[in-house]
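Re: that backbone. Tokens:
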């Protein structure tokens, strides 16, 4: 019987755990632009980057936004100013974001 009493607290617990992830606004992304592969043909390759969103389901968008900003931050720290994200199939579950960083 006692576990059933805790059931109403489950949504609060899920929200609290979601709050444990770093807020995307805490990443200070330097001016790094997102481009297509055609835009970087004359640019110098810097590094390949990847990040796992860490949040799925109802929080998938928040997790993907954080992963993108983390990749942009990593690109800036590596001396790049342009990033090309690998394409994602619309509607697919995103378990990892990958990108290539360039200096243009």
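Recovered sequence:
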């Amino acid at each position: 019987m006692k576990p059933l009493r805790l059931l109403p607290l489950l949504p609060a617990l899920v929200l609290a755990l979601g709050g444990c992830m770093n807020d995307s606004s805490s990443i200070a992304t330097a001016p790094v632009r997102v481009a297509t592969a055609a835009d970087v043909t004359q640019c110098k390759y810097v590094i390949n980057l990847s990040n796992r969103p860490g949040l799925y389901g109802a929080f998938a968008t928040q997790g993907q936004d954080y992963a993108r900003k983390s990749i942009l931050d990593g690109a800036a720290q590596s001396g790049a100013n342009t990033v090309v994200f690998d394409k994602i199939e619309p509607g697919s579950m995103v378990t990892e974001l990958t990108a290539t960083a360039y200096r243009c």
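The CA atoms of residues 24 and 65 lie 7 Å apart. Residues 12-26 have pLDDT under 50 and may be disordered.
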